[in-house]
Amino acid sequence: MNINSCRNTHDFRALAKARLPSAVFHYIDGAADDEVTYRRNTTAYEQCDLIPNVLAGVETIDTSVEVMGMKLALPLFCSPTALQRLFHYRGERAVALAAEKSRILFGVSSLGTVSLEEIGQTISSPKMFQFYYHKDKGLNDAMIEMCQEANFDAIALTVDTITGGNRERDLWTGFTSPPKLTLNSLISFALHPHWSFNYVFREKFALPQLEKYVSQGSNIAVSIGDYFSNMLDQSMDWKDAEEIKQKWGKKFCLKGIMSVEDAKRAVDIGADAIMVSNHGGRQLDGSISPFDQLADIVDAVGDEIDVICDGGIRRGTHVLKALSVGAKACSGGRWYLYALAAGGQQGVEKAISNMKNEIERDMKLMGVTRLSQLSRKNLKFR
Fold first, then answer.
1. Distance from CA of residue 100 to its chain's centroid?
2. Whole-model pTM above 0.85?
3. Phi and psi angles of residue 210, each rounded to the nearest 5 degrees, phi first
4. In the beta sheet, which residues pair with residue 370?
5. What angle do the packed helices 22-29 and 334-366 form, to 10 degrees?
6. Using an 8 Å Cβ cutoff, are 322 and 308 in contact?
7. DSSP-derived secondary structure letter, 68
8. Cα 192 from chain centroid?
9. What's the rounded Cα separation, in Å, for the pair 375 and 382?
10. What is the pLDDT of residues 212-232, one digit of tens each?
């Protein structure tokens, strides 16, 4: 299989599995505990059916959407994800250029492997920074300044990582950042020489947003779960969120909102958007899926704040279902990370193209020419 023959997320997943060392692949692919929530994030869409209309004159359609004041060509964007240069040596550079080419939003993690300064100099398209609230307040202030200097459009404060989830696949494989050299990992590296060559001989792995303040993750190997549990501030509350918003001064989003009560609080502090997200099932296993919770949140705050449905997206129909419920847009990580691992920028461009084609085709089959025409009238829940 090659990039051109990858027609969907499942194909990219298979190719990524073949090209990555086992521990690295399972870091992308895994989730918390029994991974019930991870699976439910996608299967929730299967419990909802689309009701198409016909004879609607759909020769010309518009897939664009506006989120947090940013005009995007598609209602799906690249959710911020950590450690991308472990998946492909170009990491965020590849994803940023693919996102700019397609005019979609690109999110960069605090645990990103390319500097915000470089991303800001590389692309002029919409970009969002995922903010992890650390115990080190100097680091928190520095990250806000980095975003301002790099002219980022929005910050998304992640609120669902108050402690690390129990990611048992990572415990099983021994995955850390940076990777530890063990007997098992050396065997896996040897079986994937292309990945190993790039990791060893290209640019040294680093977390440039963090490395001046903490050694964990760049120079000291640590699991992501342990990083969240030990480095992030577990006392973070709504007052801290509001303070970050005020210091930032531009578009502000809360990532990880799952309850109606928290959605209302987000409105109260003046957030511009919320990402209804359970961190891809990687935190609290057994929690409700974003799609299952979406209607209640949209009904409560959808007229006051942009609601983004994050996680579980594998098909264009999933996007249209979420927008029919009332989401402004969708986002996700694995759908493009598999593609990044499979083929760098070319892989991400192909994944975005696949999703674009699906959304366009499915809109025509639904009998709509604009996303605003979607509503709950074209849905039936089982």
1. 16
2. yes
3. -115, -25
4. 62
5. 40
6. no
7. T
8. 26
9. 17
10. 998 887 778 888 999 999 999
What letter represents residue 318's amino acid? H
Token match 């005009």: residue? 71
Residue 70 in tokens: 């940013």
Decide: 363 and 372 in contact? Cβ < 8 Å.
no
Q: What is the pLDDT of residues 255-289, one digit of tens each?
A: 999 999 999 999 999 999 999 999 999 999 999 99
The dihedral over CA atoms of 59, 60, 64, 65, expressed in degrees to the nearest 10, equals -80
3-state secondary structure of 283: coil
Which residue's entry shows tokens 């550079």? 93
Instruction: Enumerate domains of the chain plus CATH numbers.
Output: 3-381 (3.20.20.70)
| The one catalytic residue among 26, 88, 192, 279 | 279
Q: Per-residue pLDDT for 154 more than 80?
A: yes
Measure Cα distances from 228 to 92, 131, 150, 375 in Å. Answer: 21, 12, 25, 38
Q: 3-class SS at 309?
A: strand
Positive or negative, the CA dihedral 224, 227, 228, 232 is negative
d(CA 309, CA 328): 8
What is the chain's mean pLDDT, rounded?
A: 96
CB 278 within 8 A of CB 41: yes
Sorting pLDDT into bands at 50, 70 and 90, what band is 185?
A: confident
Q: Is 279 a catalytic residue?
A: yes
Cβ atoms of 58 and 367 within 8 Å: the answer is yes
Say if residues 74 and 104 touch (Cβ distance below 8 Å): yes
Sign of the dihedral defined by the CA atoms of residues 212, 218, 220, 223, in that order: positive
What backbone torsions phi and psi does residue 65 show, to the nearest 5 degrees? -150, 155
From the centroid of its chain, how far is CA 205?
21
